[in-house]
Amino acid sequence: MSDVSSTDTPEAAVEADPIEEVAPDPHALDAAHVELVERFEAALGEAVLDRADVFGMPVVRVRRIDWRAAAEIAKGSLECDFLSFVAGIDWMPAPKEGGDDAASDTSSPVQPTETTYGAAGSDGRFQVFARVQSTTRHWGLTVKADVDDESLLVQSWVPVYPGADWHERECWEMYGFVFDGHPALRHLYLPSEFEGHPLRKDYPLLSRVVKPWPGLVDVEPMPGEGDDADAADAATVESEQA
Amino acid sequence: MSTTNPPLPEFDIDPRAFRHLADAQVGVELDTGDMILNLGPQHPATHGTLRLVVRLDGERVISADPVIGYMHRGYEKLAEFRTYPQITTLINRIDWLSSFANEVPFIDAAEQLMNVHAPPRAQYIRTILTELSRIATFVLFLGEMGLQVGALTPAFYGFRDREHILNLIESATGGRFHPNFNRIGGIKDDLPWGWVSETRTAMKTIFDACDVFEDLVAGNEIFEARTRSIGIIPPELGAAYGVSGSNLRASGVDWDLRRDGRPYLVYPDLDFKVWTHPDGDSFARYWVRLQETRESARMVLQMLDQMPAGPIMAKVPRIIKVPEGEAWVETENPLGQMGYYVISKGATGPFRVKIRSASFSNVSILPWLLRGVFVPDVITILASLYFILGDIDR
């Protein structure tokens, strides 16, 4: 997934910009974003670990210790004045709950069991990512940083973007990341006595724990496919799909 | 029995004592401690279950702390256990006043990852329905804002005129609030017979309604007194808080993702104006939404003229598996910027969906915005920010 684009040079992006019939690279950046990424990488220097272009949107992975510096540069010198969100990712594949019973749980999609990392890679299980945009230059940037599995410590963006306050509180309760420099890490969505971090992959979907998925007992076979072996698969697809 | 008054006390009372007593009482009242006022979670101005813990000094707000999460449904977790077609049902319920507009960015993200392109007619119908849901959302706001300053009539007008739009959405999609009409690769059905001419008629009604609201509410002296220079959001601070959409344009920021963002739907084909207002107060937010309602109605008429014929579904596999990858799609929804960061690992469902909802960020500025305002202004500020609880709590 990472480095699928061929836009390491600005010339390539300028060529890919006009819409032509030769199937342009869907990931190619436009000229403005090429400039943005160049200035961002020049300002951060060796703090940039990796970069990938995803559907015209640059994703830059920075070092953990430069997480706040990335925000300061984006806001201070790249005119990215708008904070879209701050959120976390858990790249660990979800463990199969309930052993054999889980095999009959056709309600949820089966994800691959090996750990893979998305655009711009990762060093470990947890990552924090954020998106900033410019209201004047109309460009935007997604920044990622790895989070240490042990300390779960992340620098807070609140001193730079005050709007990061609620996003980081959400991230803290959902993933357990500790935002260093945040004014008050309190629960946002969940009750204050809640234990656990629900968006981590090893946290089960509690409604399935309380009442296991009944399986296919109440699903009628689709017309004409009654005896098919893959009735289980067909049941998960909307019947209206042509 | 005697009906006369009881006899006066035998002893003399120094009149000065009464004066001291009165002074003491006044003194007690002046020396009020801070009062904690719980606004909500059932307050009518909060459209649901937002709770504001407001610390008051007399009539003035010292600090306000929004308590959210009464309606948190955990859609980001739930989406990891659902297939892509099932997720549109969930995200219909995020911002329930403009459900159709919610579906668009998610479907768009999935289509990007699958490299599927919806046919032009489907894109047009999507855009028309998105703009219709914008009109429905805003017309309700235009009426309801009057209600919050004490004018009951505009609210009825708002509900009455929104009905025209909801009927259109219902006749096209089958659902008034939760259409669930988008499919990966297109839409479920074509428009019903006679829908186009009915929509043209309804747009005339909307233009009339906007004129009525302009006269009745925006031109009203009391309304202006209650909203002018109340709740001013500075543009830089608003952007840093993530306030988006009409709320940010009312602060003079000329930024609309329909025009300035990555091209989506058929907005590049349309000719429309992005309205801004320099003031940034509650009145400006009302005024910008009023103009945007008219602009949306104009856009709908434009699209009805330009709409091409053709298929409404692209070829998609029966079982939808989205290739491995990441996609971020943001759109200009009625309440502001809505985005989905979809991470796929090649399965029938996403690995992780980050939902960026507009109201969440719009409301996060409240602790700053409400500091120092009077209690009645809290209500107008809340109303003018226009949030939907489902959009905050997700």
How would you characterize the overall build of this protein?
The complex is a heterodimer of chains A (242) and B (394). Chain A has one domain: 2-Layer Sandwich (Beta Polymerase, domain 2), CATH 3.30.460.80. Helix content of chain A is 24%, strand content 18%. Chain A has helices spanning 10-16, 31-44, 67-76, 100-103, 164-175, 206-210, 231-235, and strands spanning 48-54, 57-62, 82-90, 126-133, 140-147, 153-155, 178-180. Chain A is globular and about 55 Å long. Chain A starts with 9 loop residues before the first helix and ends in a 7-residue tail after the last helix. Mean pLDDT of chain A is 77; it is low at 1-16 and 234-242. With 394 residues, chain B is mainly alpha-helical. Chain B has a single domain, classed as Cytochrome-c3 Hydrogenase, chain B (Orthogonal Bundle), CATH 1.10.645. Chain B has helices spanning 15-30, 75-79, 84-91, 99-114, 120-148, 153-173, 195-218, 221-227, 235-241, 246-249, 257-260, 282-306, 358-363, 366-369, 375-385, 389-393, and strands at residues 35-39, 51-57, 60-67, 182-183, 186-187, 325-333, 336-344, 352-356. Classes of the chains: A alpha/beta (242), B mainly alpha (394). Chains A and B meet through strand 3 and helix 5 of A and helix 2, helix 9, strand 6, strand 7 and strand 8 of B.
